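Standup notes
- DV: blocked on the single-chain target, sequence here:
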Amino acid sequence: MVGVLACVGMLALVLPGASWPSDWAAPAVVIKRAVIIACSAVAGQAFVQALVPALRLRFSTGDPSLNEPRNRLPQQFIGPLESLLYPWVVFDVPGAAPTIIGAWLTAKTLGNWPGWQTGPSYDVHIGRRRLYGYLLANAFQIGWGVLAAAALHIAQ
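- DV (later): unblocked, structure below
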């Protein structure tokens, strides 16, 4: 529900006739960008909180330890951070965005790789399925960031 409200709020900001200052003073522009990015982050995180468990279930990567609070804590920090940074990078540094995002994803992938290579002997493909779930969740995060950046361009 929070995600739906955030999406509606973001659409209200970018639709023609939205009540924003006509002089586009610098503080107003900064506030408008911050509101669009914040709405996007809230909506994206509301969706991704349901997406990740669904992917784990769909790809049968059901390691119960993944759902323990100590293992979910890093995701609860990194996900919102990405939701805030991806739109900003794509909007403000479009030429460098693929390099910056690519370097970040490479670092994240290398950090997870040992865990994907190991698995129970009875299921040698679990690592590959974990990688697919990871890639799909990251594709959503990046795609959502690009949509938020598009909203920033429309509202500019």
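- Follow-up: Helices lie at 2-14, 26-58, 69-92, 97-117, 126-155.
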